[in-house]
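## Example pair
The file below holds two records. Each record gives the amino-acid sequence first, followed by its structure token line.
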Amino acid sequence: MTYVVTEACIQCKHTDCVDVCPVDAFREGPNFLAIDPNECIDCTLCVPECPVEAIYAEEEVPDGMQEYVALNAELAALWPAIVEKKDALPEAERWGRVKDKRDELRRE
């Protein structure tokens, strides 16, 4: 089992989760974080740290968000590791309440 970042992270990119990850499994894109499934040790430390509740165990990813399991693996292979907390994106508070924002995800 691994953990997966889902849609709620898009355009928010809070990095509280990064601070507690003991194996540096998070990868950083322009407006989203991904978890590298090859690095994640299933410790669960990141889950309560996410203020927008974007992180789930792979088998608990909500209905309609199953694509994020493969998407995390794909993006983690492309993006660099993030190992220190950074400020959230400027409009994270507003975007944190937005639903159905998959089209906002930027890969580069």
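Second record, same layout:
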Amino acid sequence: MIPLLILGLLKQNPGSYGYELLTLMEERHYTYIVNFTKGSFYYNLQQLEEKQYIKKVNQSDNTRETNNYIITELGDREFEKLMYKYGSMTEYINLSFYAAMLFANEYKNEELTKLIEIQIEQTKKKISLLEQSIDNNETISIYFRKMLENSLSHHLVNVQWFEGLLKEFRDEN
């Protein structure tokens, strides 16, 4: 999915250099969509260039020379393919925590309580980041804002579920 993000950003910001694109992905919290690292970002940028989906346009300013990128005609076609591929996918929302819950009866009660508390804490952190992104980020598109609002709603429900689970678990023990 990283190639779609890079191509899409280049369509929005032609002539950007790699670091600018990476910064936009981080500022816009695209990690909610896909996990990426600096290394995976630059690997995908290089792959896109090798496949001739993007090309360098060297621009020099007074201080340094940068490799700025633009999307090619071939890249536009790839963007269209990736938009359809990811836009038509429907996936289940699942938490790794669910797998652990399958064996909750086989796990120490106090340790399970800690896991639930960790889930509550992590989910609340995600909620806080989502709220900050929605409230303070004027660079995101209306569609991305809607997606963040949807994600926020899911996380709020998850906190309620985790808190209810914790209460039930404590009442039983």
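Notes on the second record: The longest helix spans residues 142-172. The longest strand covers residues 54-60.
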